[in-house]
Amino acid sequence: MDSATWVSRVSSLAGMYAAPISRLIAELSKLPGIGQRTAQRLAFYILRADQADAVALAEAIREVKEKVRLCEVCFNLTEEPRCTICADEGRDGSLICVVEEPADVVPIERTGEFRGRYHVLGGALSPIDGIDPEDLRIDELVERAGQSEVAELVLATNPTTTGEATALHIAELLRGRVTITRLASGLPVGADLEHADEVTLGRALAGRTSLGGVDKPVNPPDK
Ligand code: ZN
What we know:
Layout: H1 3-11, H2 19-28, H3 36-48, H4 51-67, E1 69-70, E2 77-78, H5 84-87, E3 92-99, H6 105-111, E4 116-120, H7 138-145, E5 152-155, H8 161-174, E6 179-182, H9 198-206, E7 209-210
Parallel strand pairs: 3-4, 3-5, 5-6
Antiparallel strand pairs: 1-2, 6-7
Helix pairs in contact: 2-3, 6-9
The site of zinc ion (ZN) has 8 residues, from α5.
């Protein structure tokens, strides 16, 4: 019997699982991209795994929830009050790259084209989903943008409808106060930044375009 057949045979027996197995399947199926069948497959994999491996998985989940928090400055993920980027004196404090999620910092760092700091919004504006400006860290961004050392905000929200709406909202809010730029086109429309390749993202950063702001030249990114 192949595994798909086996899983569908097993799933037809739903309700016959011991309660701890049902609970594990229910928890796993809450993960993104994990349907009921995959959750069952993973649950049975964990049941068959070494005790040490299964406990290590549980401990890793516990540890990440206990130790990882948001940076008090930029809201990136960190173990310390400030993330390594905010704590790094060598980074250019005049340049702030605005992203939706902590996961978006990684691909931009990988390009090696950006030496400024970040601001993680915690999502994108989507009135239809009930996500309004006050649900994102926009007030905190406005406050940071008011600091004298900040000269430019690079809006690197995703090239999606909600990402574009968020970039426009921020540009409107801060127009005339700092230089505001947007990643150049060339990123696949509708895709997440997280999945953009380094070369494309590096080019988009280097060729960022002005969305208006104060009359200051836009510094080229550090090489
Ligand atoms: Zn930080």
